[in-house]
Amino acid sequence: MADSDACPFLDLHGPAFLADPHAALRAAREQHWYAETAMGPAVLRFQEVQAVLSRRTLRSGGPDSLAIQGITEGPLAELMASFLLNSEGSTHDRLRRLVGRSFTMRRVETLRPLITGIAHALIDEIAARGRCDLVAAFADPFARSVLCAFVGFPPDAQAKVRRWTGDIALLFGLGVAEHRARIEASLGELHEYVDDLVAARRRAPGDDLVSDLVTTEAASDALSQAELRAMIITFLVAGSDPVLHQFGHAFATFLAHPEQWRLLAEAPDLAGQAAEEIVRFSPASLIGLPRVATDDVEIGGHVFPCGSFVLPVLGAANRDPRVFVEPDRFDITSRRRPHLTFGGGIHHCLGAALARVELQIALPLLARRLGEFTADGPAVWLPPTQAVYGPVQFPVAYHAPAA
């Protein structure tokens, strides 16, 4: 690249990035629109990240990340290749069309009463305690309860789903070989469970995602059994940890901005704007999944050679001052330009509508029913280098107002 000497080097595993990733990204973004990393160029500014997300010649690098770790065949390689994000061309378009109807805003809106009931039930359990770990007591069970209800898994399967999705999520890290046996064991159990559930829904369809997908089998281009299984696993993995960690980011952000928490409690009609602002300001996916160039790709006057890894840094793009006014200010009353947290192009997140509704419902209820909260011990965070990260422990104390 012509001006590669002018761009900074961003050490994604260095102490500066791990201590304050947004500060490190801000410094790098103001030097150049991309930074060099050990994995390849990290694209930092909104316009260029948007271009990376929309180019069909930049495909998801999931299978390549496994190949780098020596895994090119077997159940893990097959699973990675089967994820919707890793499909391209006519195959992707066909699969997306078949499953897209289950993720319309209209369909998700019908779930509001169910989601509201789940949120109230969990808050009922913690309101009088005066202290709790908001991840363990609310974010985790809420996200998984909603997900299981949406997909069609019974409530008694939630503990298994948590273990299965947690293990399979390791597939997107850099220690796959180390955890290979664990991932494959959970994948085998989940395959068996999904096959049994699909068979049950064929006999007696319900009002859930699995039933919808089974119904598409009547179409001329129906999902195969392998595609059906892969699609269900995709939604379980993509709809669990990302949502619960996004709630963790919300808790941390509102803890640092108590006036915004009070405002949300007083004005729940700001729920939609609050949800958008939290996923812009502090996304659980700071760095998007790497893309691999299938041809020479020109962006911003520079050419990424065929085979290059390119990292779209969503968290940096969402705070680009060229696009957002006062981007480092968290303000739930703001009406900002759409962010890039849910991706873009053909791989825009299918579950974005469901995630938005979960945040819109739960955050105002928590603000109103728990009142202000303070830290009740140190939070424990996953590192920001993971595909999805957030606090795994977030202890708080509060004095819930009288009902």
Automatic annotation (TrEMBL):
<keyword id="KW-0408">Iron</keyword>
<keyword id="KW-0560">Oxidoreductase</keyword>
<dbReference type="InterPro" id="IPR036396">
    <property type="entry name" value="Cyt_P450_sf"/>
</dbReference>
<keyword id="KW-0479">Metal-binding</keyword>
<dbReference type="InterPro" id="IPR017972">
    <property type="entry name" value="Cyt_P450_CS"/>
</dbReference>
<dbReference type="Pfam" id="PF00067">
    <property type="entry name" value="p450"/>
</dbReference>
<comment type="similarity">
    <text>Belongs to the cytochrome P450 family.</text>
</comment>
<keyword id="KW-0503">Monooxygenase</keyword>
<dbReference type="InterPro" id="IPR002397">
    <property type="entry name" value="Cyt_P450_B"/>
</dbReference>
<keyword id="KW-0349">Heme</keyword>
<dbReference type="InterPro" id="IPR001128">
    <property type="entry name" value="Cyt_P450"/>
</dbReference>
<protein>
    <submittedName>
        <fullName>Cytochrome P450</fullName>
    </submittedName>
</protein>
